[in-house]
Backbone:
């Protein structure tokens, strides 16, 4: 795994997979430890993908905005959480998701395959993908305008 996973303050589109790129698939695990393929969610609805961790302060700061857009765009946008494996376990992630009411599908990136595929610079990295499978937004940090990012994909 080559990505730095420390939460650092950066703005939109300064790092990570380039906007305009085709969104890659990656083999991950669901929170039950079974293999799952990220590509099954691409090319249907727009996708909002967050690379996050339970210990990430920027992720916690972003969480209210994420919960708000999950509610507002339910059924119109697929939300995908990719929990990094640094100081995490699937069980810890599952408990956090349940306690905090995070919507969408949640994955655990034990081997860093999605982190590498999306060139993730840090936790709290958000990638928005349109239904054609193209990246239309990337951002990092706890104060992203998620609604504006989603509108780019609709």
Residues:
């Amino acid at each position: 795994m080559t990505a730095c996973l420390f939460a650092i303050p950066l703005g939109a589109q300064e790092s990570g997979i380039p906007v305009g790129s085709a969104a890659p698939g990656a083999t991950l695990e669901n929170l039950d430890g079974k293999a799952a393929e990220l590509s099954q969610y691409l090319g249907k609805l727009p996708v909002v993908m967050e690379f996050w961790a339970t210990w990430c302060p920027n992720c916690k700061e972003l969480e209210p905005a994420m919960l708000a857009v999950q509610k507002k765009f339910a059924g119109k946008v697929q939300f995908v959480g990719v929990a990094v494996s640094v100081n995490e376990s699937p069980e810890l992630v599952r408990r956090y998701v349940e306690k905090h009411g995070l919507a969408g599908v949640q994955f655990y990136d034990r081997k860093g395959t999605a982190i590498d595929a999306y060139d993730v610079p840090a936790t709290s990295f958000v990638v928005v993908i349109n239904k054609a499978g193209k990246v239309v937004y990337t951002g990092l940090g706890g104060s992203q305008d998620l609604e504006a990012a989603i509108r780019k994909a609709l």
The chain has one domain: 27-151. The chain has a mean pLDDT of 90.
